[in-house]
Write a structure and sequence with these properties.
The protein is 72% helix and 0% strand. The protein contains 9 helices and no strands. The radius of gyration is 20 Å and the shape is elongated.
């Protein structure tokens, strides 16, 4: 006799999150290419059709998980950039504390830091930089406004800082303390503080 699955109704956002988490678990265990929507559904004990109700494809599901990761990862950084507007020392202290507290503990960290997922990690890196760019630019504009810095082109400078720091921050061979030390040194050195 075939075992029937019991249908459990959940709010749409909760179900969507459950599917994204299941997908990232399956991707971590089997690899992205080898994982099917059926595998993802099996992780949470639902039929594949339920996954398709929320996501048209495995790629759309993955893209949604990346977008959520970026928002979650960047939210406290954005808050710090706004809070310490015009105060480079305050910002660097706050971001260093955030980083030291969270490094390696991010949601989906295991998937993105697997050697075979380098391409996906690069996508995540670019997505983080793209998301943070306007906030970082605004922060450097504020340093110019209060006379703390004299950055001629804050857009280019912001890109240089963002895209230059992320490889250091993602280097698993460096301790979190060393990463923050390097980041602080490079930023203050570039600003000549």
């Amino acid at each position: 006799m075939k075992e029937e699955k019991i249908r459990i109704s959940k709010p749409p956002e909760e179900r969507k999150q459950e599917i994204m988490d299941a997908a990232m678990q399956a991707f971590t265990e089997k690899g992205y290419e080898q994982t099917t929507m059926r595998d993802i559904a099996a992780v949470i004990g639902v039929v594949p059709g339920l996954c398709y109700r929320y996501f048209n494809s495995k790629q759309e599901l993955f893209d949604s998980a990346v977008s959520q990761y970026v928002l979650d990862y960047c939210a406290p950084i954005v808050q710090a950039l706004k809070r310490y507007r015009g105060d480079i020392d305050g910002l660097l202290d706050c971001v260093a504390d955030l980083f030291l507290d969270r490094d390696g503990k991010e949601k989906y960290h295991e998937f993105f830091h697997q050697a075979e997922n380098k391409t996906f990690h690069s996508l995540l890196f670019l997505s983080n930089c793209d998301y943070l760019f306007p906030y970082v630019k605004s922060f450097f504009d504020s340093l110019n406004e209060n006379g703390t810095a004299a950055v001629a082109d804050t857009a280019s400078f912001s890109k240089f800082v963002l895209y230059g720091l992320f490889p250091i921050l993602n280097d698993d061979e460096l301790s979190p303390e060393r990463k923050t030390e390097l980041a602080r040194g490079y930023i203050t050195g570039l600003l000549k503080l």
